[in-house]
Amino acid sequence: MSGRAAPPRVLTVAGSDSGGGAGVQADLKTMLALGVHGMSVLTAVTAQNSLGVQGAWELPVEAVRAQYRSVVDDIGVQAVKTGMLSSAELVEAVSDLIAGTDAPAVVDPVGVSKHGDPLLASSALDSVRTRLLPVATVATPNLDEVAQLTDIRVESERDLRRAAEAVLAFGPRWVVIKGGHLSGDAVDLLTDGSEEHWLRAPRHDNRHTHGTGCTLASAIASELAKGRSVPEAVRAAKDYVTGAIASGFALGAGIGPVHHGW
Ligand code: PLP
């Protein structure tokens, strides 16, 4: 038997969330829901639940490189997504791997979790600016990450364009500035410096949003792997994450996860 035709293949390079709400676990759930074959390169393991991150352990850089080579050299990828990269050494190694891979890369420049737990060393910020963002097809910073990377504090929708220009100056082809932490509608700005797409969704009154950022970036990567353009992929991903937030559920004593496969 030859089996059915393989679906598009998408690789996440990210950390594990033992609680299953964010990180690699959210990425693989998103990929399953969107009909692509999900694969993972683990960069770090976190002990984590609805209350926050209780511990984090980085993998050796050789282990990250070996996982990546195993996947890309045999199976191949139509898109790559990066999440928690933890240290400057890992950021630089992953940037080099992506630069040598012929597939679009969605970079979620993960800095700090919603609970305020650091997922990236502050000494790695410069490597994100100078090594990782230049190899990104799409970068997806939230407003805290924009502040960390550019010193721009976005306080209203009007500041989003200035934030996008500052992130684009580091070299990604496209940027999605996630304005979800502003009040009012959840507004994101997607731009490549010439085209602008404002993506607006009604705000859901639901605090169970753990894993939102991971889910959006993985959904963009999944849609790119299917051959969609960046604007089409980001619109479809925004719809997916809006549905996932709407059906986020309580779990444990803290913040529950967004829900996949609704
Ligand atoms: N844990 C891991 C491993 C992550 O990669 C991320 C985000 O990228 C988080 C936790 C934080 O998720 P959130 O800020 O949605 O709670």
UniProtKB/TrEMBL annotation:
Pathway: Cofactor biosynthesis; thiamine diphosphate biosynthesis; 4-amino-2-methyl-5-diphosphomethylpyrimidine from 5-amino-1-(5-phospho-D-ribosyl)imidazole: step 3/3. One of its GO terms (biological process) is thiamine diphosphate biosynthetic process. SUPFAM superfamilies: Ribokinase-like. InterPro entries: HMP/HMP-P_kinase_dom (IPR004399), PM/HMP-P_kinase-1 (IPR013749), Ribokinase-like (IPR029056). CDD domains: HMPP_kinase (cd01169). Residues 1-21 are annotated as: Disordered. It comes from the Bacteria. One of its GO terms (cellular component) is cytosol. It holds the Pfam family Phos_pyr_kin. It catalyses: 4-amino-5-hydroxymethyl-2-methylpyrimidine + ATP = 4-amino-2-methyl-5-(phosphooxymethyl)pyrimidine + ADP + H(+); 4-amino-2-methyl-5-(phosphooxymethyl)pyrimidine + ATP = 4-amino-2-methyl-5-(diphosphooxymethyl)pyrimidine + ADP. This is Hydroxymethylpyrimidine/phosphomethylpyrimidine kinase. It comes from Streptomyces capillispiralis.
